[in-house]
Specification:
The complex is a heterodimer. Chain A is an alpha/beta fold. Chain A contains six helices and nine strands; from the N terminus they run βαβαβαβαβαβαβββ. Chain A is globular, with a radius of gyration of 17 Å. Chain B is globular and about 40 Å long. Classes of the chains: A alpha/beta, B alpha/beta.
């Protein structure tokens, strides 16, 4: 008997890969939950645009539960709890899946919320070795682009780049030189998944606008 | 320290009910052993055979999620621990299983997240103030013939007085990876 789960979903590689791993083990994905923070320095959540996340949910054929939050430190946890409660009621979920890898801050807060709501909590990427993670994503047919970069020496030329062998080679060099985390766990970059085996079709970039300065650049992406 | 376990066969006994939890509670331990080129085999307690126990040099009993208490219904499957003569390390639910096998009582006690604990004496390479990751809804009292190594209200790191049986309530695979290699 498999249990019904919802996935905390940002549309980046980690949350989509967590979906993939759960599905692969036979778990029933019942909905995706996305929090959209008005604060771009949110402690808990990536801040993608709502529209492109909706598109991902659409090609995954899953309902997307959207919760807006002001992104203030403890209040956003209450908003997260609210969203999970809604999912529990509406989709009868019994567990939450997250893409947490290293962040104890993030993971332990979600654990607490699940514990309070009597839900199972799954972190299938927990403590994952970053060394081969990106290769694993490519091997499993994930097409991922960088939607933003936030650390020296990454600049606007890195935005919208696809994670492929060339990217991995270069990011590993930057890891040696500047301690840039290979999988971007330190917030060095943000990603967006354009295609993976869970998508019914590949998403295409309709338009993109890159903005930023120095070593903080972001792309506003529209997908179709 | 790592050479301690070179050529040894570690048996990881899984306690998680949900298969998806393996990636969270077992895989990180496997990765630590793999990286140090230590041989291991992982098996759920439901499928454990006498042969598995005989063929291993050391045993790690891994933890499980906050809500998963299935192992408490299956304690009869851990009776072998009492007579076992090789080293055992129990992590979280694994420590609870060891304690309950040796007569401890279980108590509701929730701790989630990072905390500092202080060791009174050296425990598998951990000493004085140590940052650990906690994830449990239960704890046990100190089992008979065991010693508690930390300065805590309830046991967080224990060892049998004469056997090499260790238990930790925290998850060393998160912040204290070297402890697993020191076992």
């Amino acid at each position: 008997m498999t249990i019904r789960v919802a996935v905390l979903f940002s549309g980046g590689k980690d949350s989509v890969y967590a979906c993939y791993l759960a599905k692969k083990q036979g778990y029933n994905l019942n909905c995706l939950i996305s929090l959209f923070s008005e604060n771009k320095y949110s402690y808990m959540f990536h801040t993608p645009s709502i529209e492109k996340t909706k598109k991902q949910a659409e090609v995954m054929n899953l309902p997307l539960l959207i919760q807006k939050t002001k992104g203030e430190k403890e209040k956003e946890l209450l908003d997260l709890k609210k969203a999970i409660e809604k999912a529990k009621k509406k989709y009868k979920i019994q567990g939450i899946v997250t893409g947490a890898i290293q962040s104890v801050y993030q993971a332990s807060r979600i654990q607490k919320i699940c514990n309070e709501l009597d839900l199972e909590c799954f972190n299938p990427l927990w403590q994952k070795d970053e060394e081969n993670y990106l290769e694993e994503l490519i091997k499993n047919k994930f097409k991922i682009i960088l939607s933003g970069v936030f650390a020296y020496p990454l600049d606007e030329t890195w935005v919208l780049r696809e994670i492929n062998d060339k990217f991995i080679k270069e990011i590993k060099e930057l890891n040696k030189k500047y301690k840039i985390h290979i999988a971007g766990e330190g917030g060095e970059f943000e990603t967006f998944v354009l295609d993976c085996p869970l998508f019914s079709r590949k998403l295409k970039i309709k338009s993109s606008k890159i903005s930023g300065e120095k070593n903080s650049w972001k792309a506003e992406i529209e997908v179709k | 320290m790592e050479s301690r376990n070179r050529g040894k066969m570690i048996l990881i006994i899984k306690t998680n009910k949900e298969s998806l939890h393996e990636l969270e509670f077992v895989k990180p331990i496997e990765d630590i052993l793999s990286k140090s080129k230590i041989e291991f085999k992982s098996i759920h307690y439901d499928n454990l055979t006498k042969k598995d126990l005989e063929n291993s040099d050391k045993i790690v009993i891994s933890g499980t999620s906050l809500k998963d208490n299935q192992f408490l219904e299956d304690l009869n499957k851990f009776e072998w621990i009492k007579e076992f003569q090789k080293p055992i390390l129990g992590i979280c639910s694994g420590m609870q299983i060891i304690g309950l096998t040796f007569g401890s009582k279980i108590k509701k006690q929730t701790e989630i997240g990072q905390q500092k604990i202080s060791f009174k004496k050296e425990f598998l390479g951990l000493n004085s103030e140590v940052n650990v990751y906690m994830l449990h809804n239960n704890s046990i009292n100190l089992p008979k013939d065991f010693v508690e190594f930390t300065d805590s209200k309830f046991p967080k790191a224990i060892k049998h007085k004469s056997k090499e049986i260790y238990g930790v309530l925290f998850h060393p695979e998160v912040f204290n990876k070297e402890m697993i290699l020191n076992f």
